[in-house]
Amino acid sequence: MNHSERFVFIAEWFDPNASLFRRYELLFYPGDGSVEMHDVKNHRTFLKRTKYEDLHLEDLFIGNKVNIFSRQLVLLDYGDQYTARQLGSKKEKTLALIKPDAVSKAGEIIEIINKAGFTLTKLKMMTLSSELIQFITSGPIIAMEILRDDAVCEWKRLLGPANSGLARTDAPESIRALFGTDGIKNAAHGPDSFACAAREMELFFPSSGVCGPANTAKFTNCTTCCIVKPHAVSEGLLGKILMTIRDAGFEISAMQMFNMDRINVEEFYEVYKGVVSEYNEMVTEMYSGPCVAMEIQQTNPTMTFREFCGPADPEIARHLRPGTLRAIFGKTKIQNAVHCTDLPEDGLLEVQYFFKILDN
């Protein structure tokens, strides 16, 4: 592999001490996974070329947030023509809608999306406003922004023919063949062109900063919170985790992807400060990339959701509670796949933090 090949991005970091944005040139060397940073304003090296295992080529696209040694950088633009040609020419975003009839199969569909090489960049379970009801049938849906080379065509190929009956004949492995019923209840939707994709994404994920369609959180006394941590999202485990939660009899009543900043995470984890020795590592993990927050309804009378998540340390979980989420998907006490509400009385507060405060 060519160890001299490099990709250059213009990146921005918010300095909380000075309350200003600092701009850097971020260089990534795919040959050995090393990074380098230059201070744009002061024309000096900020970080010498250093091996960094937590950044990967698939993380490098405009608008993404990446963490370099605990600094959360936003990738604003390509830094040179070579990078723009190599990484920018084929990358496309498209809209992926899971319709009401297939929301219960969201785990399987997201797993198919991951295996097809898409990067999930936005996700929100939502109900449609009156303006959008004409666009698609009413009821809860899951909207996603997905990214890959030739995304519009590849997503259409994964979906299969619009009529699920025809899909079962012509494309038996397609999403509509597997999870659809007919031409209307056909599991999922995808735009027909890049222009349509841009227009439809604006409806569900407005770029103007205004709120899109409302989330589906119920905010009941039976509510608890689950967060799929950034490492698990990055490793493509979201679909499997959703399937495992559903198969255990829990109802996911709201779900949304968030890119948290350090201040939000510290606020959310404040109860653990000075109590849990790994507090700083917990904070760093939670803002290291996108996480997916869920409102879970505690409808299972035989097990609380916290019990289903298992002990915080996956090694202990694998010995004592081998069927729990952390035993199956966790790696370390910090990268243990999911956060869950510890105290029953905190469930509603944690759900409100994400679906009332951060969503607005």
TrEMBL record:
GO CC term, one of those recorded: centrosome
Pfam families: NDK, PH_NDK7_N
Active site: H189
PROSITE patterns: DM10, NDPK_LIKE
Domain of life: Eukaryota
Domain named DM10: residues: 3-91
Main location: cytoplasm
Alphabetized SUPFAM superfamilies for the sequence: Nucleoside diphosphate kinase, NDK
Annotated GO biological process: CTP biosynthetic process; GTP biosynthetic process; UTP biosynthetic process
InterPro entries cross-referenced by the UniProt entry: DM10_dom, DM10_NDK7, NDK-like_dom, NDK-like_dom_sf, NDPK7, NDPk7B, Nucleoside_diP_kinase
Keyword Nucleus recorded: yes
Localization (cell): Cytoplasm, Cytoskeleton, Flagellum axoneme; Cytoplasm, Cytoskeleton, Microtubule organizing center, Centrosome; Cytoplasm, Cytoskeleton, Spindle; Nucleus
Presence of keyword Secreted: no
Swiss-Prot/TrEMBL keywords: Cell projection, Cilium, Cytoplasm, Cytoskeleton, Flagellum, Hydrolase, Kinase, Nucleus, Transferase
Family: Belongs to the NDK family.
Functional summary from the UniProt entry: Possesses an intrinsic kinase activity. Displays 3'-5' exonuclease activity with a preference for single-stranded DNA. Does not seem to have nucleoside diphosphate kinase activity. Functional component of the gamma-tubulin ring complex, implicated in the regulation of the microtubule-nucleating activity of the gamma-tubulin ring complex in centrosomes, in a kinase activity-dependent manner. Part of the dynein-decorated doublet microtubules (DMTs) in cilia axoneme, which is required for motile cilia beating.
Alphabetical list of PANTHER family matching this protein: NUCLEOSIDE DIPHOSPHATE KINASE 7 (PTHR43109)
Subunit structure: Component of sperm flagellar doublet microtubules. Component of the gamma-tubulin ring complex.
Protein name: Nucleoside diphosphate kinase homolog 7
Organism from which the protein derives: Bos taurus
